[in-house]
Amino acid sequence: xxQVPTPQTSQSDELFATLLxxxxxxxxSNNEVAVCGVGCGGPMTRNGEAVSPLNIPAWREFPLRDQLxxxxxxxxxxxxxxxxxxxxxxxxxxxxxxxxxxxxxxxTGIGGGLFIDGRLLDGSAGNAGHIGHVxxxxxxxxxxxxxxxxxxxxxxxxxIGRRLGADPSTAxxxxxxxxxxxxxxxxxxxxxxxxxxxxxxxxSVALGFGDEFFAAANMELLERCHLDFSRGVRISPVxxxxxxxxxxxxxxxxxSLGIDARARxx
Length: 266
Fold this sequence. Notes:
By secondary structure, the chain is α/β, with parallel strands linked by helices. The strands form two sheets. The chain has a five-stranded mixed β-sheet, with helices on both faces. Strands 1-2 form a two-stranded parallel sheet. A hairpin with a 2-residue loop joins β4 and β5. α1 crosses α2.
């Protein structure tokens, strides 16, 4: 796996050049690749024709799919990064034996994907699952989406860093538990609404904060879910760990070729 830091630039083309360079570096001289699968922060228009990741201001309605298709010389399939992670978990991870679950990323941003009745839920424009913009603190911090008190504005890495005045990796036990509690609060509404079996969470904040985060999230879930079908639902780490988003992007590509992700054919 290769990675590069996201350039801190306001120039959309400069950011894209970094992405394309990384993709071509990974591709090398391999001319047998059929499709490039991509997981990108949202929101976006269907199929990633235009992407506007809230945490990447340089891209607003950026034509990512067309640009990548031209730059790589192959077909490109794009979906929300958290939805991609959800597909990866459904194929290879902790969701492979589940028909109804929510998978989440708690990292620089907070996003989710809903796997309902054995399939990924897309929504009208392909943006279903944006749990990061469920309100958890009505009078809370301003969010990049234009609202306030969103889960992403309260429990993402940058929001924790702003509150601490330091890197979120330095968070103490209180901050770890607070982030977990707020995630559990948002998740409880989704579990009560959609009759889910499990909730799977990945991302650098959730996995980095570890046991304290997950214990607080499950305690909040326990306190807020009392319906017969929602009582006892658990939040646990993704099965694929830090590789979940990358595996998910691959599944997005394979799905575009007509391969059934649940069949696990490769």
